[in-house]
């Protein structure tokens, strides 16, 4: 087990306070982009989830339970993408643990790809498969060829979802780049002058 000096946590707190203070000096539009960028990623993930849900419903001929299937396909990807972007990109930027633009772009692009694009599709498979089994809307496979059946059913959905996945990945990579540039801009601002009365 490592021994951490108490100075490490104090230094991290000081760095976080300095970065936070500098970010609050930015204009409101830029500060909002920095603070609420993860929400935009979550909204795009929710949209990808709804599109994937709709495509799987068409392939499996599921017509019942539109709201019961659509609600989790919007809410779960939204929160997953929002929290993962905050945890993997926004928080490390504000604590000073992510200080390379290429690393920020790569990390944010991967978060967009995995949590914003692929995760909603993989979430839609069991949800709509369960609905198809419950309402007997599609002929489901027997025990021996389940994997090949789902691969065959999912291929057209993945082909149609290629553009939204790439768009989500590019958007989050661009957002990570913009947030990094805003952080650099904020750090170059002079310290605010404290008025003593």
Jot down its keywords:
197 residues; mainly alpha; 6 helices
Which helices and strands occur, and which strands form pairs?
Elements: H1 6-23, H2 28-59, H3 66-95, H4 101-135, H5 146-160, H6 162-187
Structural description of this entry:
Helix content is 79%, strand content 0%. The chain is an all-alpha fold and 197 residues long. The mean pLDDT is 87.
**Biggest sheet record:** none
Overall pLDDT level:
87
Shape: elongated
Distance between the termini: 50 Å
Low-confidence sequence ranges: none
Strand content bin: under 5%
The string of secondary-structure elements, in order, is HHHHHH
- Helix % is over 70%
Tally of separate helices: 6
What is the C-alpha radius of gyration, as a whole number of Å? 22 Å
Structural class computed from helices and strand pairing: mainly alpha
β-strand number: 0
Give a brief description.
79% of the residues lie in helices and 0% in strands.
